[in-house]
Amino acid sequence: LRTITKACKKFGIKYLTVYAFSTENWKRAAEEVSFLMSLLASTIKSEVPVFKENDIRLKFIGNRENLSPDIIKVLEYGEKSTEHCSSLNLQIAFNYGSRLEITDAVKKICLDIQNKNLKYEDITENVVSSNLYTSEIPDPDLLIRTGGEMRVSNYLLWQIAYSEFYVTKILWPDFDKSVLAEAVEEFHSRQRRYGK
Question: For residues 18 and 59, is the Cβ–Cβ distance under 8 A?
Answer without folding.
Answer: no
